[in-house]
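Notes from the 1:1 (GR / supervisor)

We went over the backlog. Supervisor wanted to see one worked example end to end before approving the batch request, so GR pasted a single chain during the call. The sequence is below; no edits were made to it. Supervisor asked that the structure be written out right there so they could see what the output format looks like.
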Amino acid sequence: MRELGAQVIKTLPGKVIAEAPFEFVYLANYALRTAEKVYIYLVHGTIEDLKDIKSLSEEIDLSKYINGNETFGVKTKRFGSHPFTSIDVNRIVGEVIRRKFRLSVYLDNPDLEIKTWVIENIFIAGINTTGYSLYRRGYRIYQHPAPLKPTISSLLIRLSGWKPDKSLLDPMCGSGTIPIEAALMGRNVPSGYFRPYYQFYRLKFFERELFEDLKRRINARIKWDLKMQIYGTELYRKHLYGAISNAAMARVIDTVSFMVRDARELCNFLDFNVDYIVTNPPYGLKIASKKAVYKLYERFVRELDTCLSGTTAVVMTAEDYFWELIRDAFKVLEVREIMYGDLPTRVYKFVI
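Structure output shown during the call:
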């Protein structure tokens, strides 16, 4: 967000509160690679009960964002233990909004979605300007049974420090998300390039000419002809064909090389010292068994140690034993804990 000109005010788990010119709503939705949604901040404060939530809701001012004939809905997400439910919060906030601004409630597909969070004793409210999540890029026509979100893929690539003039390999690429996101990043293709819709289209402040001008300025920096050394290998042919289809839709098939290969036999097919490895191996939850996954990790680490030198690797996994496999074998630079949905995972960055 700082790179796009925002001033970060506060960070919370999974959230960043920032100040920026109003045009940033367009810019953030179109260009942020690791964000799920962009909200316009309305109010926040400490609470103990529903009376406090009602009091804070009274401070909400929607006059800049509505004409008065919009429909609205309220969605709440709670973290912690409270003497009330998310439905109670929806009701309280909804009653205040309906009374103050005389809007009609429509929960299925409202013009205006008010999102509230109750994080322990903190209450936050905002307007969803995105609609469906930004991880839905628009290019993925093949869905892997255990897909990695493009937002997480972009995060892993950023953490690795990879640059377009360096080689990158995902040896367990699934439907190709990491190689595809790397190619899009390298070519300066904005994350929203293939996306047809944003929720802010339905809000009062939306100026289509302003948004289209911003898109033209950003798109002018795209380097469609840039060729990079980006590779994705996958054991299962079905998933590899899906990765190829996704890369074609993303217009990067000309700079990403996909091959059917086994990561347990890395040394048999890798005939050069790749600069970066970024991968999200199976966890043994949706595909493969826990025992099979352990053997995969063990063999994969052994292959890394045998045939690579000086390579920077970033691996995301929910398996705790991965630390035991790498801590003495490689120089570990960083370990981060990331919640992937409800699943706690760790991201390991190390030099081979």
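Supervisor's comment: The first strand starts at residue 7 and ends at 12.
Batch request approved.
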